[in-house]
TrEMBL record:
Residues 1-35 form the signal peptide. Residues 461-961 form the TonB-dependent receptor-like beta-barrel domain. Pfam families: Plug, TonB_dep_Rec_b-barrel. A motif (TonB C-terminal box) lies at residues 981-998. Its main location: membrane. This is TonB-dependent receptor. It comes from Sphingomonas qilianensis. Residues 79-192 form the TonB-dependent receptor plug domain. Belongs to the TonB-dependent receptor family. It is found in: Cell outer membrane. PROSITE patterns: TONB_DEPENDENT_REC_2, TONB_DEPENDENT_REC_3. InterPro entries: Beta-barrel_TonB, Beta-barrel_TonB_sf, Plug_dom, Plug_dom_sf, TonB-dep_rcpt-like, TonB_rcpt_CS. Gene3D superfamilies: TonB-dependent receptor, beta-barrel domain, TonB-dependent receptor, plug domain.
Amino acid sequence: MRTVSSDRRLLAGISDTAISLAALATALAVTPAAAQTAPAAQDAASVATPAQAPDDDTATPDREIIVTGTRIRTSGFTAPTPTTVIGEDQIAKNAQPNIFNTIAQLPSLQGSTGAATGTFSTSSGTQGLSSFSLRGLGAIRTLTLLDGQRVVGANVTGVPDISMFPQLLVKRVDVVTGGASASYGSDAVGGVVNFITDTRFEGFKGNVQGGITNYGDDQQALVQAAVGKSFFDDRLHVIVSGEYDHEDGVGPGDFGTDLAGGRDWYRATTLINTGQTNNGSPQFLYRDYAQPYQYALYGLINNGPLQGIAFDQNGAPYNFNYGSGGQPTGTGRVTGCFPAASFCVGGDLSGAPGSGASLKSSLERINGFGRIGFDFAENNELYFTANIAQVKTANQPSPGYNRPNLTVQCANPYLPQLVRDRCATAGITQFNFGSSNGNFPDPHVQTDRRQYRFVIGAQGQFEVGGSTWDYDAYYERGTTLSDIDVDDIVLQNRYVAATNAITLNGAIVCADAAARAAGCQPINIFGGAAPSASALAYVTPENGPFQHTKLKQDVASLNFSGQPISLWAGPLSVAFGGEYRREFYEVTGDPYGAGVTTISPNSADYPADPVLNSTLGSNWAAGNYKNGSGKYDVYEGFLELNVPLWKSTAAGQANLNVAGRGTHYSTSGTVWTWKVGGTWETPLDGIRLRAVTSRDVRAPNLSELFAAPTVTTLPNFNDPFRNVGVQAFQNTIGNPNLQPEIARNTEIGAVLSRPSWLPGLGLSFDYYTIKLSGVISTLSADQIVRFCFEGNQAFCGGFVLNSPTQGGNFINVQPFNLASWKTSGFDIEASYQWRRPLGLPGLFTIRALGTHVREFLVDAGIAGVDTVDQAGANNGNTPNWKWLATQSYDNDAFSLTVQERWFSDGVFGNQYVVCTTGCPASTANRPTIDYNKMKGAFYVDIAGSVNIKEGISLFGKVDNVFDHDPAPSPQTNTGLDVNPALYDTLGRIYRLGLRAKF
């Protein structure tokens, strides 16, 4: 691991040790989608009913009404866009070490990323990144705000990391489940998640909690504290908060099927491609304990007359145990197995790397936040906020180094004499060899994200022509510095040089003289003997893959809201404003990964080496980070109106809400967004109807526009124009000509809120449909060339295949506005509160939230590729049904809550045709399979708290009480077959903590 310079350190001196306690808390309590106007922050003893809270017009402690999903700030206004509001008390009761985990449980949030996702990846840069995805549309299509303001992204996709927010000061979270681009701009296609902080907090509050899983891992420790104080007759307000969270993470396991902590649910479940497409049998078979037959833990000869000889830990040869009763053929295939997939079933799985990935990244986050506000006049404030945070994560993507295609010389002095003799008998001088290299150190990925965010602004009121107007102006400067380091990863050409050993002057050395001169040390790959320190230093140098990214965001915003005139049914409400935004990024990779054409190599850390490709880079087995940069500017303005239509006892009250926004991107020009909606408070007791339709956009992000290029060698790429194979380089790059994605959102709903005949009841139902066109997606190199060959000129400018020298051939693989998506379904929310149940003091609350995904159609936009419905495909993010329910009892002495989380059974993919015999022809669009079911899951959480004395409570929680295992999510490779975006992969978790507020 390289030495990190001082400018890459943040908040040094923080101890890695924190108090480790555990957490049981009352579960999530959520106000219904009927929510729109924000309630005041409330104590547990005075929580309004879920139907009541969203429509309560009580002024907030900030002396303003903030309504996410609209810019109208008017008491009594109910916007048509459904919004779920999660209050401060409910956040505290869920007792999660990261507020992200609480919000992500909502059924409308599908496909969010966190510490348990992305752990199998080396190069994605999203390990441990906590970001929300609404409606399964992806985090890049969900706009996340802090106090209604944008937050600088945590990576080049532009999504922020919730772990960096000042979580103890959050008094509520608004989740808008509908398009809001006309109000807030780009990215609000799936909706908006807005964190509202308590900007007038006074006093002290703190929280200490810890946790551990049933398997003795993922030990957690969280310490939070906040102090607020007013000065100068309540005109100066100062708030400071700090947080430290340490989570050990889970994993990794080992080779084979052994997971971390004794978890026993992994079975190496795989969809095996039989290669049979038209013989009446299914093409794909669902099988447990699938064994790849090209490699073994300490080496396997996988082709030629010696195929099937493996090596044990001591380097002794033995006959490998293939599954399925398989026998090697000497041609690389194995009888009784599946050559199209190179799998057997059963046998020796000791070298399979799937279970060796981390189940959850370790995570350490430090957050410091401060706010100073000064009331320079009544109802007018100048303020400054500073948020400095650091999040560090670590994970193991896989164990050892999986190399299935090495050529080994029979003269290799490390090869046992018995095998050398068999080489001579067979008349061969070399053979093909595959190994998991179980004697190699395991690679580890460390990320270090630091965020510096500063905001200066003014908000308040002024009078014009007898009308009161609200204003909100701010300037934000945000900077994220992100580093990714990969340790113990292999330089592939050095590995090949080190394994090609000879005897020279009585010593075993590397065969390549140039490699020897550059420091090559030989490695014995036959058996489990660990390579020497010098050999490992050559193959896996201390200075491994590295990426440094700088992201900058500047935002200047000015908004006004008021009621200039009164109409026949009430005042006309108006909001308007403008915003300027600049996004910038720059990324630098190490020379071995990036190449030296764009960066000068550091001779000390990355010395020149003749066996490495210095021009193209891409020398590492994984983590070949490239260099790049890009920026764009955004100018936009909006206007929103709320027009009262009628108000009477006989007809109720109705309003029309319309908004429009013009946005100019420096990269793609001008785009327009709008919304039209309305609500009708019917004369029927407690019944309100609402509807809204909108045109929303997502502009291409920095990564899609200006991605740092990556280079992959294609040694025998087919040129269809000449029908020959050529060596070409695949350049994966951004596309600066991308256009914004365009969405059409429509929602229609009904709300029953506080009827006089049952005032504790709240119900809501909302139907939604989202159509997204111009979805940014990427084609393969083969598709790009083939489409040009078939006459589509749009794809002909990005490749060269007839260069005079093979080194000049290339194909640029870049994203295009190709695909279209359509999803529809409905949300249901129900709640009831019962005060003094059965005569007992306190409050009994029942709440349930459900989302049904009726369809999620994905049209790739490629000729010959059918549209696929991903609704109910549980290896993705959108199960057909997803529910969250809570039942809680609270009084002055204690609270108790039971929570249920459930999603429905599904399939691996709706494109499959299930059959066992008499199958139709299997095609790319409709492949045949023998089994296509993927069970859902039902989780139960139990929580409680006891009030020790006024302001101090002891709380605890058990998540996943019954330790429910995840269902397999089989792929067609040997990865860890699980879907952590949907299933709980950690098991039962215990938490305990102490909370204080004075």
